[in-house]
Every structure is written in structure tokens, then in C-alpha cells.
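agent> call fold_tool(seq_1)
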Amino acid sequence: MAENKLKERWKAGKAAVNGWLAIPSGFSAEVMAQCGWDSVTVDMQHGVQDYQTMVQCFQAMDRLPVTKLVRVPWNEPGSSERCWTEAPTASSVRW
């Protein structure tokens, strides 16, 4: 399992900076993951991301030292569980 830069920074009492990815593209995710963010959130709620593009984004970021997060599209068990299946470090659930 990849290191969790977010937890490491928080344990050290440091702030963390998150990038927000709404572009449904593995290439964009890979570029974002190399920009120095501590974490990158794939936003499935506000943009045109869907499950397939979320998977592509996670795969593109997998080899890079960035914590992968996802903003699920709706507070509904089915869509949340599908996101968790991809094993992101954390999910943001809409309330």
C-alpha cells in the first residue's frame, strides 16, 4: 500500500494542501499528482467524473507519492461502496 502523505503531515502537526480534480482524464490526474500536492481529490459530485474515469485517475496516480481521495457523487450506499472498492485513502460523503 502506498504511503499516506496526509496522515504523515498531520501526525507531524503540519498543514496539508489538496488538489481538486474535476477533469475526467488519467493524464490530468497524473499531472496533478506530480505538482507537489499532498493529496488529490477526484470530484465525482460537481463535474463530469464517473466511476470509470475515477478508476482511470486513481490508476494514473497510483505510482506517485500523493494521497488519493474521492468526493462521492451522492450520499447513497451504492455509489459510495463502488468508490471505496477502488480503495482510495478517504472519501468525502455529501450530507
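agent> call fold_tool(seq_2)
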Amino acid sequence: MLTNQAGIELIKEFEGLRLRAYLCPAGVPTIGYGTTVYPTGRKVQMGEQITAEQAEEYLRSDLRAFERNAESMLRVSVNENQFAALVSFSYNVGSQALQRSTMLRFINDNRFADAAGEFARWNMAAGKPLAGLTRRRAAERELFLKPVAIQPLPDVGDFPPMQPVAAIHTDKPMAPIVAALLPSLISAIPEVAKLFGSGPKTDKTAAIAQKVAETVIAATGTPNLQAAVETVQADPQMRKQATEAVQAIWYELQEIGGGIGAAREFSVRAAAESAPFYKMPAFWISLALLPLLYGTVYAVLTGAEGFTNELRAAIASSVVTGVLGAVAGFWLGSSFTTSRSRGLGATPTTE
């Protein structure tokens, strides 16, 4: 997760910009917005100068380490403002201070109001409160408590109908960044919510969410999911582009986790591409079931000593009925799905 612009502006305001190297209160050569080591790994030396653009670049490079550390400490989802406030806090006092803080413990216990109250405690230097630190902690607390604004979005068109596969909350954990930003992504592309119904919990949900996130990132050409969500929220054209990309993999998402429904959809695509029957998954699935059918019937009729003829006949009949029923159901289901995809919504339409 990356620090949002509100967090970056807060850090820049309180760190201040110095284009010539200086000694910080700890006696360490510092430059820009608090940079002590350049992105190349070389330490800042006294007498060096940089431009404002370089200072911005060095700040963003410095923030990556604090972002990774903060993300690794969190066991719950936080919004972008809460995350930015924590990064600003640790950029000032250090990641180790955040790690051992009561604030972090409250956050991981979902006690966010109590966590917000902890900011004010970190305003001391050399045993005395400092006005600058007091103002910074107040600003970080305000950002931490500020809700993330969700912009209203226009209609983005229809998606093909699909059976919901799972609720958003599952027993299998998603990546923290995906879990944190999934509600914003659904708000930006509302039809994505159709993927997450109110059905039973399943491990497929996390995989589907990850696939949707990767698709939107690729469609928007952004480096990560946070940037992708911000882009589709701000740019209607990019939102349309991301929507179309998700539409393009709609049936692929249904296949995640396998199952007969996925196999049917796979056969539909093969049929749509005019593939020979022997290249269709349905043909090979049916063929694979036949040895099971013949082998079981043969074993029951010839090798089941002690079975009466009536019992043998009943077992053989049940096996034949079950296997042939599965094959017939698969083919009929494939035929129905083919008809649906060709005439009942496989191609999204807009009003």
C-alpha cells in the first residue's frame, strides 16, 4: 500500500524542505524532506545540494521502506488515510517505535478510536513536549480519523449474468492491500459486486478478488492497486477501459476453483471457436468416464462373490445410471450455456 497524497503533503509540511545538506538534531547529515541516505545507498554528505524535484524523488523512495514496514505490522485492514497517518508517524519517530506502540496494538484489535487517542502521547523530545510535534500529532490524528471520500460514479454498462460465487469475507485471507481496497474498487466499478454475492464462504473469493485486481492494474497501466483505484475514480475513460477488461475475463473468473460449471464454460469457448469435437473438454471428460463405467460393471458382474444376481444387477444399474447421468447432464448443461452465451448476454450491451 502506498502513502496517499494527503499523507505526503502532511509529511512535507512538517519535515520542511532543505535543498542544502544540514546536520539534524542527532548530528546526521540530512537533505530534502529528511533524507539521510540517497536511493543509491550513499549517505548524504555536508555541502551537497539538490533540486526540489530530487527532494520529492528521494522522499518517495524513503517512504517505501516505512510503507513496507507498516504494512507488515498490520493484521487488519485500514483505509488509505489511516495508513498514510501511520507512515507519517513512523517516518518521524521510526518504524520500531510504531511496532512497539500501544497505538499499533489498538489498531490490530480493531480499536481505532483508542488508537487515534495515542497520537497525542508522542509529542516529547528530551522529556519535554514540543509545539511542532504536538501540531504534527494532531494533524496525523485528524488524517487517521478522516473518512475516505467515495465519488459518485455514472453507469458503466451491463455485464453478462453470473451466479454469485461467494461473500467478500472468507475464511481464506486476501492480501492486505486487496482486502483494504476491494470496497473502493467495487465502488469504482459497481458491477464487480456481482462477483461477490451472499452465498456460502469459499476459498475461491480471494483468488477472484486477486484476479480482478491484477486485471484492473493491467488495464490502467498503473504500478499497484491503490493507483489503479485512484485512476478509475478520477478518469471516466480509464474506468470504462478497466470495466471492459473485467468484462473480457468474466467467464474466466467463474472458472476459478474448477467445477462442472467451469468445465461447461470452457467447452462453450471451444465450441465458439469452431474446434473439432475431439478437442472439446466435454468429449474427453465423457471418454474418461467410460472405463470407470465398464470396469465397475465388469467387476460387479464377474468378481463379486457372495452377491446375489439381484444385488449385482442393482449395483450395475446404479453405476450405469450415475455415470450416464453425469455425462448427459454435462452435455446438456454445455448446450444450455452455449445458447445462453450466444443469445442471452455473453456480449455486454449498453442502453
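agent> summarizing second result for user.
Residues 277-343 form one domain. Residues 162-172, 336-351 have pLDDT under 50 and may be disordered.
agent> awaiting next instruction.
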